[in-house]
Design brief:
The complex is a heterodimer of chains A (169) and B (552).
Chain A (H helix, E strand, L loop, with lengths): L3 E3 L9 E3 L6 H6 L4 E5 H12 L4 E6 L17 E6 L6 H11 L6 E6 L6 H6 L4 E3 L6 H7 L17 H6 L1
Parallel strand pairs in A: 2-3, 3-4, 4-5, 5-6, 6-7
Antiparallel strand pairs in A: 1-7
Chain B lengths: L5 H22 L5 H9 L3 E3 L4 E6 L4 E3 H14 L3 E4 L4 E4 L7 H10 L16 E2 L14 H11 L14 E4 L13 E7 L5 E7 L11 E8 L3 H15 L10 H8 L1 H15 L8 H8 L15 H9 L1 H10 E3 L5 E6 L10 E3 H14 L3 E4 L5 E7 L3 H10 L14 E2 L14 H10 L3 H7 L4 E4 L13 E8 L2 E8 L11 E2 L4 E2 L3 H15 L6 H8 L2 H7 L5
Parallel strand pairs in B: 6-7, 7-8, 16-17, 17-18
Antiparallel strand pairs in B: 1-2, 2-5, 3-14, 4-5, 4-13, 8-9, 9-10, 11-12, 12-15, 14-15, 18-19, 19-20, 19-21
The chains are: A alpha/beta (169), B alpha+beta (552).
């Protein structure tokens, strides 16, 4: 079971059941959990049926799926998970930023997939709020990595005021 | 020059601490090679044919004498006593030891240098005109804008894992010397009729396997919107650039596949979200950055000098050197001096530790301690008094740094090639040397006049062969090295991609091939036409006929 941490590095309970991409509506219904994360395509195809189950749903986007696909549903979703098929695939950084900046999404954005320690700081800066760590990542390393840098030059989700404006203050 | 403040200093320190730990984990076997790879690349470290290679950034080509001395120290202490200046205003060390790289980075920080993002799929070192700030024909000094871009792009959390590398060039002069149009983003500084500064924005240029000239997506971007607009471009690229094929992952392919109008519409729509937001540049920030690039304490001088005139009359070699390596300066009585690192028999762009220290001393003595690195792999002393040119020349002569070939045939741009690089298909340095040996005579070179020869050892095009007047590409044919020749490339405001002459040649044929190409040029030249002008007028056929003519 991968461990889940928040932006402060605290281990948090994971009440969400993450269903794979090929999971069906029936499997979503059959989940023992009350909180279920389904793939984007299942959500788009079976939204009404899923909502009628009385469970709470989150959606996960693969790296080739965009924030725009679920833009209209964000008020229904307390959680959006973004998948890193490999840590080298950086699309989810922009997807997280778009969810926050364009769609004013305030729910949880969770990093899933190839979530390694050396990218955690950047993820946090782009608006991710929880991290499903890969098994190989040591908890204390991940906690340290969230503090790799004390600040960032550019405007980011976490600190929209860029350094050049803070310098002038 | 820009100086670090507490924030710059701290972030660089944090970066070194982070990389030291990553290196430690890799060496301990905790961090897998595949996971370490992008991390080390983004800290400038390649693994090459013979040893690791560390590429140190020289942001937009500005270098101080103090920094050059540090590079000399690194070359001597951690390497084999020399460094190689690359075509992207960086310096490469070919023999560092992996466990020592964090120490090298710490040494670099002592002189406010780094190796951040000099490699990997991220925003690379921003480049510009090597004469920025001192050229008499300048629209606006590009250096403050480059520094603003450097800071924005450094550790930008959203853009550390782009589909592929991403290069930005800024040009503030009439005559483009930054190869702006063959960058992922090219920025021409422009002034409106009312004198307001802005940027003409080009996207999708690039060399490599598929050379493309960038296209304009905005004619005038007011300066305060620079960073939000860059954010919008790179965000679209990060989301939509291809990741299924490494060779189709550059932004040029995305722009080509979408069409520039669709790409522009996407950028403009994205930009509307951040336009006028907190990332909008402020007059204070521009002023702050500009204040680092003020003029040194120039003396008020006339634009002539008796010592200089006497030396011109008495020393023909000085006369030649002055003719090619010395350029006009914006201040009367000052000159810009290029140190051509292309002495025949030495690898283009290489400098020994002793030479670095020697040049640093000259910079202190004659040029306010300031130097530039050019994308033609040369060094520049930006502010030399006319009266000092004779003494400077004599000193350079002693260290074999007075090669009078700037902008001439022997000023060959050349990647390290198969002698060093693990990507190369063929050697490139021996080709450069063979050509240099054939034409190593000032009068011959002068007769040929302005010309650029660019050599790359593979299609990744580090030697920028697509935009050389004569471009040479090393290719591999069934395990044997051959060389393809192209003509007509250029990287100025009239950027053009060279056209392949025909079937490739064996290494030993190359000097003859170049000779034949030049014979056609000299026979067909009208008046003072440069090689490129004659080529553009007569086309490639006369060259093909002569080079491939069968001996009867």
């Amino acid at each position: 079971m991968p461990r889940l941490i928040d932006t402060l590095g605290n281990v948090v309970d994971n009440a969400w059941d993450l269903l794979p991409k090929d999971a069906t509506l029936d499997q979503a219904k059959a989940s023992a959990a009350k909180l279920v994360i389904v793939a984007c395509q299942l959500w788009l195809a079976e939204k009404a049926a899923l909502l009628s189950t009385g469970k709470t749903f989150g959606v996960w986007l693969d790296s080739n799926e965009t924030a725009g696909e679920i833009a209209g549903d964000l008020s229904l979703l307390p959680l959006v998970a973004l998948n890193f098929p490999t840590f080298m695939d950086g699309r989810a950084y922009s997807t997280a930023a778009l969810l926050r900046e364009h769609y004013d999404y305030e729910g949880e954005i969770r990093a899933i997939g190839d979530v390694l320690r050396d990218q955690l700081f950047f993820m946090k800066r782009c608006g991710f709020t929880s991290f499903n760590l890969k098994d190989s990542v040591k908890l204390e390393d991940a906690q340290k990595a969230l503090k790799d840098f004390s600040t960032t030059y550019a405007s980011t989700v976490e600190e929209p005021v860029p350094l050049f404006r803070r310098r002038a203050m | 020059m820009y100086r670090y403040d507490q924030y710059d200093q701290r972030m660089q320190q944090e970066r070194i601490t982070q990389f030291r730990d990553q290196t430690r984990r890799f060496l301990a076997g905790v961090l897998e090679n595949s996971q370490f790879l992008p991390l080390r690349l983004q800290n400038g470290l390649y693994v090459q044919r013979l040893a690791p290679m560390l590429r140190v950034a020289i942001p937009y080509g500005c270098l101080s004498a103090r920094q050059l001395r540090k590079l000399a120290h690194i070359a001597r202490h951690y390497d084999k006593g020399y460094g190689h200046f690359s075509t992207r205003q960086n310096i490469q060390f070919n023999w560092p030891k992996l466990p020592e790289v964090p120490d090298i980075l710490a040494e670099l920080l002592e002189v406010e240098m780094h190796a951040n993002q000099t490699s990997g799929n991220c925003i690379r070192n921003t480049t510009t005109d090597q004469f920025a700030g001192v050229s008499p024909h300048e629209i606006e000094d590009s250096r403050p804008w480059c520094e603003i871009i450097r800071q924005w792009s450094t550790f930008h959390p959203e853009f550390a894992h782009l589909p592929r590398k991403f290069k930005i060039a800024v040009c503030g002069t009439e005559h483009d010397q930054a190869a702006t149009q063959v960058h992922d983003i090219g920025l021409y500084i422009v002034k409106s009729f009312t004198g307001d500064i802005g940027f003409q924005v080009l996207v999708g240029g690039g060399l490599g396997r598929t050379p493309v000239i960038g296209q304009v997506i905005r004619d005038f971007l007011p300066w305060e919107h620079l960073l939000t607009y860059l954010d919008a471009i790179v965000r679209i690229y990060n989301q939509e650039g291809r990741r299924d094929n490494k060779y189709k992952a550059r932004i040029k392919i995305l722009v080509k596949e979408l069409g520039v109008d669709v790409f522009r519409a996407k950028v403009e729509a994205e930009w509307l979200h951040s336009k006028d937001g907190p990332a909008t540049l402020t007059a204070e920030e521009f002023k702050r950055c500009k204040a680092f690039f003020v003029d040194p304490a120039y003396e008020t001088l006339t634009d002539n000098d008796a010592t200089f005139d006497a030396k011109q009359r008495s020393d023909i070699r000085f006369h030649n050197w002055n003719e090619r390596n010395v350029r006009a300066h914006k201040k009367p009585g000052y000159r810009i001096v290029t140190l051509c690192l292309k002495a025949t028999g030495s690898s283009p762009g290489d400098l020994s530790a002793e030479q670095m220290e020697f040049v640093a001393d000259l910079a202190d003595r004659y040029s306010f301690g300031e130097l530039r690195v050019t994308h033609e792999q040369n060094l520049v002393l930006t502010d030399v008094k006319l009266a000092d040119l004779p003494a400077l020349y004599d000193a350079l002569q002693r260290e074999h740094l007075a090669t009078p070939y700037t902008g001439l045939l022997n000023d060959i741009v050349c990647c390290p090639g198969g002698d060093f690089c693990s990507l190369a298909n063929a050697k490139s340095i021996p080709i450069a040397e063979a050509i240099q040996r054939r034409f190593d005579d000032y009068d011959v070179q002068k007769k040929i006049g302005d010309i650029t020869i660019n050599i790359s050892g593979c299609m990744n095009a580090c030697g920028h062969h697509h935009v050389g007047n004569i471009g040479i590409l090393g290719v591999d044919k069934k395990g044997e090295e051959f060389y393809q020749v192209a003509l007509g490339g250029s990287s100025d405001r009239q950027t053009a991609l060279g056209k392949v002459l025909g079937p490739s040649f064996a290494q030993e044929e190359m000097p003859d091939v170049i000779d034949k190409v030049l014979q056609v040029y000299l026979a067909r030249r009208e008046g003072n036409e440069r090689f490129i002008d004659t080529y553009n007028r007569i086309g490639i056929e006369p060259f093909q006929e002569h080079v491939y003519a069968k001996a009867d």
